[in-house]
Design goal:
This protein is α/β, with parallel strands linked by helices. The protein has 2 domains: about 5-140, Rossmann fold, CATH 3.40.50.2300; about 160-215, Orthogonal Bundle (Arc Repressor Mutant, subunit A). It is built from 9 helices and 7 strands. The protein has helices at about 15-25, 40-50, 65-75, 90-100, 115-125, 160-170, 175-180, 185-200, 205-215, and strands at about 5-10, 30-40, 55-60, 80-85, 105-110, 130, 140.
Length: about 220
């Protein structure tokens, strides 16, 4: 029986101690191999172009280009690696921006090792893995498989403009940015957002994001 090729991972983080710990963790897995490291965004792109990793484990906050710009450059490479963000930011705005830029997964650094390993395997096989776990919240959302059966959400009619606002907010845009993109006043966007909250019962940006994913708006 021929063993499956190992998942080739590039670690991009500006903290050397963290990179060392991640390398030890990943290389200890029978199905993973760390092919290289990078300490800033530009180096991450250059190393990925040179080493052709399957997955780039990327910190959003490194010296050099903004994290979203690094993601966009990585996914334009040929062959294109899957980008898994590993970050300290548990704000849905960062999550939305990373996914909009082309990331396949998002894991906060305080997540358990097993979740990180699962995320790498999920994004490698073509899925999306999101972890925004906070105290009192449920765990990660693995979108590589159909969600388990839950009570169906009641059908709620949304206007075209409400859908536009919902999509932009779920992607991480502020009210001001959404207003600029839609050529609306900030007050109008705020009104649409309140209507969405009233209609859908979704208060936080994380809930808006989850609804947008379930409704295939992203």
């Amino acid at each position: 029986m021929v063993n499956a090729p190992k998942i080739r991972v590039l670690i991009a983080d500006d903290h050397a101690v963290l990179r060392t710990g991640l390398r030890m963790l990943l290389d200890a897995q029978s199905d993973m191999h760390v092919v290289g490291e990078a300490a800033d965004g530009a180096e991450a792109v250059n190393r990925a172009a040179e080493l052709h990793p399957d997955v780039v484990l990327l910190d959003l906050s490194m010296p050099g280009p903004p994290g979203t710009a690094v993601i966009e450059r990585l996914v334009r490479l040929s062959p294109s690696p899957r980008v898994l963000v590993l970050t300290m930011h548990d704000d849905p705005a960062y999550l939305g921006a990373a996914l909009h830029a082309g990331a396949s997964g998002y894991v906060v650094k305080k997540a358990a090792d097993v979740e990180l390993l699962t995320a790498i395997r999920v994004v490698h096989r073509g899925g999306t893995f999101v972890n925004l776990t906070r105290p009192g919240e449920e765990g990660a959302a693995d979108q590589s498989h159909p969600p388990r059966a839950t009570a169906p959400r009641p059908a709620v009619p949304l206007s075209r403009r409400e859908v536009d606002v919902l999509r932009l907010l779920a992607q991480g845009h502020t009210n001001q940015e959404a207003a600029r993109q839609l050529t609306l006043s900030v007050k109008t966007v705020e009104t649409h957002r309140k209507r969405l909250t009233d209609k859908l019962g979704l208060k936080s940006r994380a809930e808006l994001y989850r609804f947008a994913v379930e409704a295939r708006l992203l």
